[in-house]
Write a structure and sequence with these properties.
The chain is an alpha/beta fold and 241 residues long. It is 34% helix and 24% strand.
Length: 241
């Protein structure tokens, strides 16, 4: 498969944010608040999938991981610290430049690439992650199929994405962009996928969903796992059988 899934306008939008991607108070502040919650879920699924001790600090040692739509490396770097050989790919060359610079400063060896996932050399990965990306591509079905093609036998895939509900339209698109919580133009509500729709795409790509949970606002922590899926959700999948 080599169909293009990158939306050039989306790539340009996120590339323009590259310079302060790592600033927790900058334009990516929302991602910095989301990331610890995502990481908690990813770690839980890693432990369950590979029967890893929860106290093991390098649960991905000896395994490979790819973060698709990696931005400037906010998730790729923790995956590397968990012991994985990490590849990161993003549509925006500006993000990849920022990711490489930051990883070098942290002493982390991460293989970063700009461009289409299909353009990477043939390889599969034990862990495939893609956070808040599927709602930005031109063809979600092709994109999910590309992700599935990169998942090694016995591997684990974890995605997160906003849900297409009236609440997400009100809070994630209209209110969040109006008050500046996320940059204007970040979200197109019509592109959001309901959990059933994303599940169908995963199953059509030969995967089975093994877990799903809501990701919702928390007055105490900013965000929390569990509870309502009305705004956002995380989904874990593996090959069928």
């Amino acid at each position: 498969m080599s169909a293009a899934t990158i939306n050039p306008n989306e790539a340009a939008h996120f590339g323009a944010l590259a310079a302060d991607w790592w600033d927790p108070h900058g334009s990516s502040a929302m991602l910095h608040k989301l990331n610890p919650v995502r990481l908690s879920y990813i770690r839980d699924r890693i432990d369950a999938h590979w029967h890893v001790d929860a106290h093991d600090r390098r649960p991905l040692a000896g395994r490979s991981a790819i973060d698709v739509g990696c931005g400037a490396g906010l998730l790729a770097e923790p995956l590397a610290r968990m012991g994985a050989a990490v590849t990161g790919i993003d549509a925006a060359p500006e993000n990849i430049a920022a990711a490489r610079e930051h990883a070098a400063g942290q002493g982390l060896a991460i293989a970063y690439h700009a461009g289409e996932l299909a353009a990477l050399p043939p390889a599969t990965f034990d862990l495939v992650t893609s956070m808040e990306v599927v709602e930005h591509v031109t063809d979600p079905a092709v994109f999910v199929a590309e992700l599935a093609a990169r998942l090694a036998p016995g591997g684990l895939m974890i995605l997160s994405t906003p849900n297409r509900t009236m609440l997400s339209k009100l809070l994630l698109v209209e209110a969040a962009e109006r008050v500046g919580a996320v940059p204007r133009g970040t979200h197109d509500w019509d592109q959001f996928l309901k959990p059933g729709e994303l599940t169908e795409l995963l199953e059509s790509a030969g995967l089975e969903v093994v877990d799903r949970t809501g990701l919702s606002p928390s007055p105490a922590k900013g965000f929390k796992l569990g509870g309502s899926e009305a705004l956002n959700y995380l989904i874990a999948a593996r090959h069928k059988g």
